[in-house]
Request: fold
Amino acid sequence: MESTVHQIKATLQGIEPAVWRRLHVPSEVPLSGLHAVIQRVSRDTAERDSRAVESWS
Reply:
């Protein structure tokens, strides 16, 4: 059976300009799993941004 995939837009509050990520998550992922996905995406983004800032220095 084919899985339904949900598209979710996660936006960080209190930051201008807006910082957001579009996530595609299978419907089988429980809410606790969605939380883990959002944390992972946030961590990966922060690490990538940190490396970019270091390269500008």
